[in-house]
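B., you asked whether I could sanity-check this one before it goes into the benchmark set. Here's the sequence:
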Amino acid sequence: VQLQASGGGLVQAGASLRLSCTASGVTFTNTHMGWFRQAPGKEREFVGRVSATGTSTILLNSATGRFTISRDNAKNTAYLQMNSLEPEDTAVYYCAAGLGLRTAWGSGYDYWGQGTQVTVSS
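And here's what the prediction gave me:
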């Protein structure tokens, strides 16, 4: 199983970025997809999850209203659309895949991508 995350970069506060995560070697339509982030010196943080069917999404409170998680099962790809970015959003963002209900709470992920750096300048 491989998860390839992309789309990170250096942007100014208020800008938008869309991260993509393309999966291979997994039955994508059975797999819940999550996004996490880890800022320097901090623990990894669960950002949110989109269910296998795409009908259910969960987002971190601080991301609600600014971030959107979606997926395109025809492309085996999940997305994290980030708007109104803030310097506090600076982190390495990881996508992850899992099968169980615990993925809704940020656990039970079996596969991880390599991470993509997002840096937001003030």
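One thing to flag: The mean pLDDT is 95. Otherwise nothing jumped out at me.
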